[in-house]
Structure to design on (273 residues):
């Protein structure tokens, strides 16, 4: 992040994207935040809080911990503050800051949390090394990332696959990595963390789970793919008819008899004492 490290947020900052992020966080709370609780008195850094969708969950799950949530986007921070204040959550402080140049002293935090952040950074290893500086010895880091290469669905459709591939390509064009989930283990190890443990968190959705069909397949994943339509067409990655066919086929996975799967990866590691 910052001028030398920044990458454009591929999904944009629209009201629809704001809504999608909160839909995503709400739907995935139990899956992704299971076991993530911080003791009373803990100082926790949330690096890359965005619009506060994950912040709300973290702060409510650990009401006696103190959170410092950072981001570089003024617009996102404003939305995050409003969401937290509106919910009456009082254990979060928001700071505009660059992950690569954190304005905190060494070993300032007991724990660090990142969710869907590294995928947007051109230098994720450098970011992890910079973050490690402010973690106290023995403290933990939790990192959650998705992996668009893990997507599969029924009915199968090459046209639908191509729409996802377009999203991956656009993110790569902006120096991000939509398939970084599979790299969490080596990244955390190379960044100098100890006792690294990474676990897959698979989302499996069929029509027996209507809440997941709506909350994840439609409002989280397909909405994310639809969000890059203008970029895909402007770059001539697909013509309009091919794009529409692919999106229609993606929605088929949310219909009766459809199946949709996606894997997130959750890494937990420690700074050696």
């Amino acid at each position: 992040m910052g001028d030398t490290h920044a990458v454009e947020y591929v999904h944009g900052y629209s009201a629809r994207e704001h809504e999608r992020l909160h839909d995503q966080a709400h739907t995935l709370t139990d899956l992704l935040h299971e076991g993530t609780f911080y003791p009373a008195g803990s100082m926790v850094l949330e690096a890359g809080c965005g619009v506060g969708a994950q912040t709300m969950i973290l702060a409510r799950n650990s009401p006696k911990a103190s959170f410092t949530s950072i981001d570089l986007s003024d617009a996102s921070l404003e939305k995050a503050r409003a969401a937290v204040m509106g919910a009456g959550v009082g254990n979060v402080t928001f700071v505009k800051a660059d992950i690569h140049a954190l304005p905190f002293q060494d070993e300032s935090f007991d724990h660090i949390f990142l969710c869907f952040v590294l995928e947007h950074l051109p230098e994720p290893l450098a970011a992890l090394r910079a973050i490690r500086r402010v973690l106290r010895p023995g403290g933990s880091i939790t990192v959650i990332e998705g992996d668009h290469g893990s997507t599969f669905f029924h009915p199968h459709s090459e046209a639908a696959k191509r729409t996802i591939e377009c999203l991956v390509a656009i993110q790569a064009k902006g120096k991000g990595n939509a398939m970084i989930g599979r790299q969490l283990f080596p990244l955390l190890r190379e960044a100098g963390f100890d006792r690294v443990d990474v676990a897959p968190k698979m989302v499996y959705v069929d029509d027996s789970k209507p809440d997941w069909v709506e909350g994840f397949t439609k409002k989280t994943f397909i909405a994310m793919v639809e969000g890059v339509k203008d970029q895909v067409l402007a770059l001539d990655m697909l013509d309009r008819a091919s794009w529409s066919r692919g999106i229609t086929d993606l929605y088929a996975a949310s219909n009766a008899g459809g199946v949709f799967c996606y894997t997130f990866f959750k890494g937990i590691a420690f700074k050696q004492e």
User: Anything to note?
Assistant: The first strand starts at residue 43 and ends at 47. The CA atoms of residues 133 and 206 lie 43 Å apart.
